[in-house]
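USER:
I wish I could look at a protein chain and see how it folds. I am handing you a single protein, as its sequence and its fold in token form. As I understand it, each token names a local backbone shape. I hope you can help me see how the letters and the tokens relate. The protein I mean follows directly.
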Amino acid sequence: MKLENQVCSLEHAKKLKELGVKQENIWWWVETKDNSYKSFVMNEGNLFSYEKELHNFYSAFTVAELGEMLPPYITDNGDFPSLDILRTKDSWIFNYRVGCAKARIRIEDESLSDAMAKMLIWLIENKKVEV
């Protein structure tokens, strides 16, 4: 499996940066400001030292990094829902269960890293976790 398939997509990396998630890791998506070029690179210490005015940089969070950012549970109306991770033939499903009979937060994607990134985005946008 290619390493770029083990990190969140450029789309989700952009959204996480927009939401204020710290941009401190080894893997990055790089995009020219005119959107004509996109690349996946490793930060070797000088990533930001060249052509800052021409490029946008977005942290390409790995599954491990995203897993560390996702809380094991969230507090919602006095309940303490737990995180369930399910694998189907075609996708990954992330749920935060809110009691036995109540609705749950459900995120699904073909990619594990993108399912995790989508859940983190939802949690931040809905003020369930702080950046």
Summary: The chain has a mean pLDDT of 82.
